[in-house]
Amino acid sequence: MGSMFRSEEVALVQLFLPTAAAYTCVSQLGELGLVEFRDLNASVSAFQRRFVMDVRRCEELEKTFTFLQEEVWRAGLALSPPEGALPAPPPRDLLRIQEETDRLAQELRDVRGNQQTLRAQLHQLQLHEAVLGQGHCPPLVATDTDRSSERTPLLQDPRGPHQDLRVNFVAGAVEPHKAAALERLLWRACRGFLIASFRETEQPLQDPVTGEPATWMTFLISYWGEQIGQKILKITNCFHCHVFPFEEQEEARHAALQQLQQQSHELLEVLGETERFLSQVLGRVQRLLPPWQVQIHKMKAVYLALNQCSVSATHKCLIAEAWCAARDLPTLQQALQDSSSEAGVSAVVHRIPCRDMPPTLVRTNRFTASFQGIVDAYGVGRYQEVNPAPYTIVTFPFLFAVMFGDVGHGLLMFLFALAMVLAENRPAVKTAQNEIWRTFFGGRYLLLLMGLFSVYTGFIYNECFSRATVIFRSGWNVSAMVDQSGWSDEFLAQHPLLTLDPNVSGVFRGPYPFGIDPVWSLAVNHLSFLNSFKMKMSVILGVTHMAFGVVLGVFNHLHFRQPYRLLLETLPELVFLLGLFGYLVFLVFYKWLCYTSASAASAPSILIHFINMFLFSRSPTNRPLFTGQEMVQSALVVLALAMVPVLLLGTPLFLFRQHRRRSRKRPTGRQLVEPGDEDQTGLLDASNPSEAAWGSDEEKVGCPGPEEEAEFVPSEVVMHQAIHTIEFCLGCISNTASYLRLWALSLAHAQLSEVLWAMVMRTGLRMGNKIGVMAVVLVPIFAAFAVLTVAILLVMEGLSAFLHALRLHWVEFQNKFYSGTGYKLSPFSFAVEE
User: Which region ranges are annotated with the description Disordered (predicted)?
Assistant: First the structure.
């Protein structure tokens, strides 16, 4: 947990891996997940690297695995994850896996092809059976003289009608949605010189491609003339009809139908044997594919990592550079020694200096991961700067609860998060694919604290579903006011609103023990009272939050060995912030403590005093809070304005003076270092990268050397410091006003709760009293109230309060000390993140 407050120390190491054991060493590092490799072959294309052929073989295997996986899914089967941890296979096993995979894929292709062919043949036989068995009866006379016509000659040809023509038949099947179009086209193209009969199959037939049942339309066309027959065949081919031979004699058709049934029976037996063999092949694929996928995936990752290594001059070892946490270096050394023991030469780990900023490593657990995710969404912190996540664990749920304070709503959110926390180890919960559910599940501990803090602030506001609760005795005594005021019946009839005067003896017995007195929920000035209370509370919380952020910057300056920033930046910032807005908080507390109910009517306005503070004026109608207030206010404004030039010019002048001093001493110092000793000096000076002084303002990182000092540009430093000064000074005003969103959203949430109660539950209760069947009426009323509460007050209002709390942390709090310009340590690991 210590690394949560600041990222861990990360070192740049150089690995010398024997060629014979390089694969085993990198595989072991992938299992441990300790190092992040740096690409030493950035200038080399991916096609010219050492292990590119091995990577291609792995990619070809992955393509074959994809084919096998799709075939398994096509058969309605599932691939179970492999049991246990599978290591990356040795390189010699790659050929064996490739041969077995190719053999399985070829068997599967052959069997699938045979199955498709047999199904297509069976489908043809079934269609032919349907055509012959549909009962199409050819007409005895196929002529077009059935219909009477005025143009029919009275005397027929002595040779008889159409004695030179022979009646022919075309039988087949077509898809139902094409039957009507086919019939119309045949009639128009053949000009009616045919007779067509269309019938739907009695039973649906299985489609040979999709396997789904489908109905077909069988047809029988009788015609005469060769040209007509050619037209019919062309048209049926265009409609992709299945055309079958059709015998004129009934006995021949019956014999053909029996032969087709026998062939179908034999084909079904062959198809059954083929499908049984296919299931056996798929069973082997189902058993062997999951472990192969994991192993080849790991092997490909190993070769990709090896492609980032360079080869030594003797070609006896591979050289790699990697980032590794300092505390994991002994584990890294031991893992490499164990992996390279069989090769006879041990791998070596050597820590080397660096001028690049190391990656940021912050270890998290289930509880802290969501809070660290909030911080990282703004930007990953620079190496070893203060991490806001530990403080966000408290401040984020609390600021959310200030805007969402309600005992009932907070309790519902807490119970929902608690249910997810208790069920977090169930496999069904972990493997859920719903994106919204995974979002809520990932932030379950954040929701848990948000609900818990909302219950706490709900007790402070004394609100539970917008209703006040009487836990302790109220501090206001109405009977004492009645006894001492002498209210008569006529006075009560003329004054529907009565005022409780705290100056009357016995009326106000003292403050409520915890939170707001429930008697305020009955007062007509309830909203005005909460306005004043929540507005002052927002300003106090905002100034405290911002001041805490400025103080956290002190730890950054001390860690990066920049003590001058304490006097030239942190101190002016605190004086400016606290001299103006800290004084406003002081006035709020002073007025609360020094003015009682007896003097409340003559109490001065803090807002007018604060405005007069900047105008250097006074208001004759607004008397001072204390003696010498005008002098104190003027001194604070002058002091705050005096901090602006210090904040603007202090750091640039100091850095410029430091640069000139170093530039004068540089020639003398460089004469003491021999040319051959420069590398050794760099190794000694930068042995601990965490001690390097990375400049937060100049955005430069690394060990400061002569080259970097020569690149000092005063104009860039002045410009950067001017932007920082303007942003901070104006931000103090805008950020303080931004915290008033705590007041606004808190009142909005309370008023929405009140409106929902008044328009739903109160109406239902009144209806129940009138009708007399309260239980029956309240069931739908309470259901509507529950749905609206969850949808509007929990989901919509909760999301709104969450986004505003997120903005307060990112903009108003973190920009006081957190740059967020780093990058995460992404170790080479085979583990899959949950």
Answer: 665-707
